[in-house]
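Form 12-C: Joint structure prediction
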Amino acid sequence: MNQMILLYNDPIEEGYVILITGLLIVFGGLILLTIFFKYALPVMLDAYIALKQIGVKKEKELEISKPKVDKREFTGEVTAAISVAIHMYLKKQHDEENAVLTIKQARKLYSPWSSKIYGTQGNRL
Amino acid sequence: MNQMILLYNDPIEEGYVILITGLLIVFGGLILLTIFFKYALPVMLDAYIALKQIGVKKEKELEISKPKVDKREFTGEVTAAISVAIHMYLKKQHDEENAVLTIKQARKLYSPWSSKIYGTQGNRL
Amino acid sequence: MNQMILLYNDPIEEGYVILITGLLIVFGGLILLTIFFKYALPVMLDAYIALKQIGVKKEKELEISKPKVDKREFTGEVTAAISVAIHMYLKKQHDEENAVLTIKQARKLYSPWSSKIYGTQGNRL
Amino acid sequence: MKKIILIFGVLSLLIFARPILGLNSNALNDKTTTTLLQTHEEPEETFISEALGGIEQFYEYTGFANAQAGHIIMIIIGIIFIYLGIKFDYEPLLLIPIGTGVILGNIPFVAGNQTGIYEAGSVMNYLYFGVVKGIYPPLIFLGIGAMTDFSSLIANPKLMLLGAASQIGVFGTFLGALYLGFALPEAGAIGIIGGADGPTAIFLSSKLANGINILADGTTVKNLIGPIAIAAYSYMALVPVIQPPIMRLLTNKKERLIRMKPPRAVSKKEKMIFPVAALLLTTFISPSALPLLGMLFFGNLLKESGRTERLAETARTKLIDIVTILLGVTVGASTQADIFITKDSMLIFGLGAISFVIATMGGLLFAKFMNLFLKGDDKLNPLIGAAGVSAVPDSARVVHAEGLKADPRNYLLMHAMAPNVAGVIGSAIAAGIILSFLG
Amino acid sequence: MKKIILIFGVLSLLIFARPILGLNSNALNDKTTTTLLQTHEEPEETFISEALGGIEQFYEYTGFANAQAGHIIMIIIGIIFIYLGIKFDYEPLLLIPIGTGVILGNIPFVAGNQTGIYEAGSVMNYLYFGVVKGIYPPLIFLGIGAMTDFSSLIANPKLMLLGAASQIGVFGTFLGALYLGFALPEAGAIGIIGGADGPTAIFLSSKLANGINILADGTTVKNLIGPIAIAAYSYMALVPVIQPPIMRLLTNKKERLIRMKPPRAVSKKEKMIFPVAALLLTTFISPSALPLLGMLFFGNLLKESGRTERLAETARTKLIDIVTILLGVTVGASTQADIFITKDSMLIFGLGAISFVIATMGGLLFAKFMNLFLKGDDKLNPLIGAAGVSAVPDSARVVHAEGLKADPRNYLLMHAMAPNVAGVIGSAIAAGIILSFLG
Amino acid sequence: MKKIILIFGVLSLLIFARPILGLNSNALNDKTTTTLLQTHEEPEETFISEALGGIEQFYEYTGFANAQAGHIIMIIIGIIFIYLGIKFDYEPLLLIPIGTGVILGNIPFVAGNQTGIYEAGSVMNYLYFGVVKGIYPPLIFLGIGAMTDFSSLIANPKLMLLGAASQIGVFGTFLGALYLGFALPEAGAIGIIGGADGPTAIFLSSKLANGINILADGTTVKNLIGPIAIAAYSYMALVPVIQPPIMRLLTNKKERLIRMKPPRAVSKKEKMIFPVAALLLTTFISPSALPLLGMLFFGNLLKESGRTERLAETARTKLIDIVTILLGVTVGASTQADIFITKDSMLIFGLGAISFVIATMGGLLFAKFMNLFLKGDDKLNPLIGAAGVSAVPDSARVVHAEGLKADPRNYLLMHAMAPNVAGVIGSAIAAGIILSFLG
Ligand code: NA
Ligand code: NA
Ligand code: NA
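Section 2 - Result
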């Protein structure tokens, strides 16, 4: 693909073209993705469920109730709660990490690379 | 080993030869294996134990009682019981798998590839 | 670096030179390491702590007390106790290993390489 | 509804932008020349027109500009693989990586940029090396050995013959491929699909039908690794669909009700000796199968020795996982449309389906044949013969499920495992034989 | 005090032994010839003098004899990297391996003994292969995909645009590098530092600025993999230092207080479809980014399929760990002083710093721009725009921390993850674009 | 009894079928020509006779037809290795893979089919690459570093000298090999067996005695990787057999009763600084040992940094396991009878045994020598000198066990670890020195 370089004699000029082109393409690409997930996917999922309802009336009770629960159970409020929990978790983490390390090191004292020690670790893991 | 191909001018003819030869060899090989495990191995194991009994009279009590228990304890009935257990295990498995996944996903929410998060997972595993 | 070989016409003679040279260098190198860890490192660590005390008076309480505890808590007596524990651990190990294996084998009976079984193990690990 | 129109509008804009921009993927080379001339002729063009030129130029390199029917078909096939794996749990550890690989291999690209799996220097090409050189399959077999319990085979060695009988599928398909006009080595590689063993199929085809070897008549052998691997794994995944009707066709209710006596217990020593003895006997018979059988029994020895549990654990978890990921995605990507969509591939798929049927029948009928010589509670339930095709352990499960349909208390799983693993050994021996004759 | 003198004495003895032994590392070749002549002229010399000769001769090969200022400087830099990683927890999984690698690469040695990373046949050279050929980065991306949850992006796809806006850092730096006189491919590789994504930077520089490609004017492109990788990883580690001032500069208190509504819940099906759809759309747009984006979404599919947890687990733990170790140590070792300490490296470090600033500003300002069109609780907290640079998840954490400073109950982490991962996708697309234009 | 006859009958049938079929493995080429002629001369022969011809032809390629005394001997040796590993727990993680490899390497095969480890293109050959190029040993050292605790060495640095003293085994054996007529680089590689460190032995022999390098007199150096590796690992496994008599011979009861004071506690900071400082000092002294020492201390830094536990865990578990499997099986397989069973191999085994004895004595006597200068509770128990040979941690355990025999409450394990790990460092430095002189 080296021919592309030949198009412009001045690298700076080509640089500007690549800058503009590149940004447009990146934006274009991610806008495409945005549109797909914002509009296309929900439609497709609805269509899929609709198709299923028509085709497979028999297993209705089980199949349909399940995804609905999935959607409702995990709403924004839960998300917020988890967000807080994660925040706290990330804060605390450091102390715990150190504690774990200490215990681990104590257990591992003097356990270099013998095959027998290999075996020991193998059992523990 | 390309010379083998030259033996027959007609590929189809050679094909038949390979078909017959191949099947005979596969059967021959697996029959050999069958004979070994059905007849040779028990004899060899008996011989080994006999040799041991002659050579090392001292550690008799411990050594000999052990393999015998091994053989008796795990008989056909136990095997059948395990078979049933496995069958039930394989059936149940699916539900458990989903449960495990849900818990895991909740724990892992928003934990992409930071080194700090690496560390977190490292501790958990 | 092949030129080195040319230095001496007699391999045996060169052998003696390499023997003496090699031993001197190995000893020299490890003596250097000994000196560093026996004398240089403690000095450097003291200097580091001293520098820290001058520079960062503010966090004095937390920072300084910590390493001292680290040093005192884990003294020779504790080490000796651990040494005994390891000794006993290494002795016992064998029986435990067998027990673990038996349980593992029972669990794993008839679980060859299907993807579904892969999945099963994945959950357990 | 409005939304659907919006989306279809955007997508069609991209795909049909070709005529609008005055481009045509087939006329790519011409066009570039033209563009080149234009820019030289019009040095005063504005900056915006240059940027548009850049986009136009870039557009030629996008998948939208280069997509052909073949790419789209293959991508849909890839998506179907993934769907089957997720929805029906058909060998997902294979179908999902392979399906993704099929998509990756068929993203339309302009050659020369080290993107495609067949371009030297591309990342996919480096990872594909393990397939082309047959390195991944023995590593998979190492892990398989480390996770397989051969107890049921040791307890009842005569079931080994059911694994041998199923190899009629391999040799029968080989003959069929010869009749369809494939060269001898190509036919050998195609035949192994009947072994119902993915790694063995990849190993043998990488040695025989790799697009490198020269035939006796001076022509180069075809590269059939992709179609053979895809066929082998597809049908393995479809074992629960293919086998049951054949099983019902060839057995009557009475046969399906036969209860086999529980296998005898197997001692630890026997389990330790098995891999060593089996390694020696099988590789003495078929030395060309050494990489497969050697690694299989090496893995099993690691498992059974009782001293190397650590290594066995790694072999059957992380090592096999890594190789499975790389193998799956590169085998999938090797189905690049221009190389994959050929008459040969179609023939191979047809032959593959037949080979599974023959292999299943071979095992079943041989079990019935053996019953002629066996008495009392030594009689075999002929269903377990079907497990001789390999496809471990799906095939044994199918047998188990069929047995349960006839008698809900007849647990055939353990019995079926014996021919199941024997089928793997048999297929590897068969691969070695074919390699010796045609390699 | 006595001890210090003792130690300094020993060390200076070693380093200043050069003049004492009558040697000079620069005059190495001359000296060897002399030694050679001497031994031939004096065959009667005693054994002890020969042994001394041996030590003298060996001394020439030690690091003490060959150390130059560059080596010492680089070793100190390596130690600083390790110190920063341990002391301040700045990306220790990267800085510690890279720092150790910097030390390893700058141990002074005499060429010809297969020791250095640039010597064919050396172990380091074999391990470096995965960097030079761009093999490690896609494997890292595979693991990243298997550990990334794209939920927040799926829930709020418009945040994808913030990841796009940050790419101004890439293209702006590219232009800057051109102005500083770098050739087009070199400038492209330097620009990608602004993507704040180590693997992408290594991948692109291994393709464009690898010391192998030939430019249009017949000169060979420079090998800038080392400096670019080091710059990318250094600044990624310094994100908590670089970003906060810019964030405070470009936002007012009111903006920083904006609370965003919690993202909607995302169904399992959406999460499964995301990797496949995103894979298709992004690689159709930028096929040259296939190795990166293909592996990223492949890993994510393994994670989300619900059937391949085993493979995903391996990809995101042991596989990525192994590759991280090898990548880190070899990238570090590639900074061998004589190749690394150049004006180009200094320029690259300067451009890298600027690129991070531009990228952060781009994301922030675009978030403010988007707010012009959004109403009510749809408004964005512009801080999250800064997370568009990638540097996952450090950048999102910095945003979270800044948000907490303004309002201790405003948890921005989940919102910031969306532009954060979008930045990765955006940078990979940008890398593909640059590769298409300049590859 | 009947059974035994049956089995022996079958096996002898196979092995003695040679004369029956009118074949002789030595006359293989002649025979094939004859077969070829026959088939052309008798085109009317029946189908069954053709099939028999096929079997006859195939038989020539089986192990039964090609087995020679060497193969059988080596296979028995392989089985003995496995037996020793399982029965006596002698380094099973090494002996079982190596033993299996010995079997795999000595399955008789006809060359030309990409089966053997020395045939280009075979799977074993690709896996052997990591041995030939010395890539596996540094990766093993990385894992070793990540599992080694250097505390006892840091607490008592003077014990480092015991590790140095043991290197007399390396240089003494080197001299012995010269006297036996080996060329300088070959002797260097043989000497390193005395280092009692498998990976170091493989690394050095892959650089010096690899069958590729050209000597000063124009001849090619011998490929001694196989025998050296096997000797090193065999004697390492036999440390519990070799060392105790020497220890009892050179120490009296009083010396064996010496109780050493418990080592001082070592701070976290010291443990972090150790790998970096040791890396710099040792590689400055012996830059050619960089791949080994660099990776050893890199692994240790990953362990001790407290920030990279994740990477250290992978390095010391899955990574080292994978490399151990591949290294063991390929080193074993490299003992292909026709290459391995030579007078050189016998000499190497003899020299290897002597080297272990010298090294053990060196360490012990130097400990007694050091005691002349030490007073009170600083005195060393000379037994710990024996641990200086490396063979970590078996050698330290042997010391511990001997100490317990003299005084059931004298726990020497921790004290013995210091010379034990120092022995590893010393051997790696020695390897670097030899490489610098002879590389
Ligand atoms: Na099969
Ligand atoms: Na980015
Ligand atoms: Na040693």
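Section 3 - Comments
Chain D touches chain E through 41 residues (CB under 8 Å). The first helix of chain D runs from residue 2 to 15.
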